[in-house]
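INPUT
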Amino acid sequence: MNSRLRRRIVNAAMTALCALGLVVALVPLASVLWLVISKGLRGLDLSFFTALPTPVGEPGGGVGNAILGSLYIVGIASAIGVPLGVGAGVYLAERGGGRAGDVIRFTAEVLSGVPSIIVGIVAYGLVVLPMRRFSALAGGVALAVLMVPTLARSTEELVRLVPVALREASLALGVREWRTSLRVVLRTALGGIVTAVLLAVARAAGETAPLLFTSLNNQYWNWRADQPTASLTVQIFNYAVSPYEDWHDKAWSASLVLLLLIGVLSLAARLLARNRFGGAR
Amino acid sequence: MNRSGPSRAKAKIEVQNLNAWFRGVHALRGVTLSVPVNTVVAIIGPSGCGKSTFVRCINRMHELVPGARQSGHILVDGQDLHARGVDPVDLRRRVGMVFQRANPFPTMSIVDNVVAGLRLNGIGGDHFELAEKSLRQAALWDEVKDRLHHSALSLSGGQQQRLCIARALSVGPEVLLMDEPASALDPIATAKIEELIRELREQLTIIIVTHNMQQAARVSDSTAFFYMGELIEHGPTEQIFTNPREARTEDYVTGKFG
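OUTPUT
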């Protein structure tokens, strides 16, 4: 009887501790969300999404060019980084048993630990200096360099999770190895890979430091990859460090827009992953 | 006339002095065995005796294991598997395989699983007729015809295994290797698979690895007993189970060890 009571007490205490842990984990998230929403919602109207920024003191204006620029830069980064990262991951999982695999894995690990501002400097040296100008391309390259190592490692893990039995089933049917890798192994892991890509893209969209001296900023619309380009994160940074009260408000609103953008992106890809790639589950 | 006598009828598969290693383990030691066309050979023996390695050598799946090595000859229709110009991919279409655990492709529907051999090789088009034929051969058609586009994972374990057999049949193999195909199934599903094996013998040559000696007795024409990587005895199934020549075979089939 006694031990049963003790068990109940311990059980209740542990459950309470778990619940407490959940609350502690959720508080910062909820408070950040609340802060951004409460401070950002005021300045948010339709024109904030579509208009160009206005000079200080002038009311109205928006971050339309920065939204477009962020999508543009992240698009360039994804076009470079996703194939490289996923390709490297598949290579590591399928052929990475030897020395080359170890070297790549080690490099990826080191690279993923490099501070993002350093990556920005590298992109500055690689793209900005030879081109003699800041550009969306340079920003895209910087973000791509950040995406590749994490994508490679997570793709590797996901591909390794595909049961050997499926590989063997395909090979035993007389399907060539490269087709098996592509159409069975990669296809089976695709749902997870889409999620990993999504996380990498969302992370890249939230980066500021590597964009400061690669894509810089732009007060106007820009469609060209070789021109300085506005991005939400750099715009938020500029607004936030300025001494003007109305720019501070705009920084909050732009932050909310960034959160929305990432949220919509995640949701869309998640739905896509479930309907299109989740397959028959 | 005893059709199952080793090396009597025309041999479909001829194994000569086969040795195989992986990661330093000498898994097969000098195995010589002949399988006549349109017969069922059962491979029995305790765990780790090289049964699986043996069948995996016949469709050259063994060589995919890192550190795998082999010596000796395997002839299918008189042609050496390791002769120059023999593509293992072509070979695997002639020598199909069914695995211990049903392994349908989880991302594909039932019908797509059946014709996966063609689809994955980039052969497009509507393979519905082939799918129906293969599913009928595997005695699964009536159970799945109304839900061909459902996930393969919606089937029961026994149905999944028959789906895998249908998938192996769809590429038109001449030989079917079965590595303990019923060991994860219940008795009813097992009975269905065994019935299927008896029917398929009309068209195919079958090598089946099994732990279940009753199963070997029920489905096979001849039985080969492996022990510690060696082929101890190969003979007509009836003789192996009633009057084996080797003492070790008798000990094993009467349950003294293994």
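end of record. The mean pLDDT of chain A is 90.
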